[in-house]
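Hey, I was hoping to borrow your eyes for a little while. I've been staring at a protein lately and its backbone has me curious. You're getting the sequence in one-letter code plus the fold written as tokens. Would you mind checking whether the tokens look sensible for this chain? Here's the protein in full, and shout if anything looks odd to you:
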Amino acid sequence: MRGASIVLLSLLCGQAFAGLIFGSINVHNQPLSQHDLAVECSRDTYPGRTNDNGSYSINALETGRCTLVVQYGGDKATFDVFSERNPSRNDLTLIRENDHWVLRRR
């Protein structure tokens, strides 16, 4: 029983240290407002949505390298992000590049 309690505690602590991924997204020098997006990590996908100012905040319950995904104009624009103990800010812009929409850091 004690071993099971230790395992459960370590799993809960691991989730407590997972990261907040936040920032804003612009397109054509305007906020990407009220738009769905997601952070895809190795075990799960964490959905989110931008607000009227293009800002987003997603709490991924795992750490490590993840991918921020935005569906826009028929394209799947992605950007590598890192979920870690400290919050990670990613201010991005959607740009048209080689006939596809891509996310770039501002």
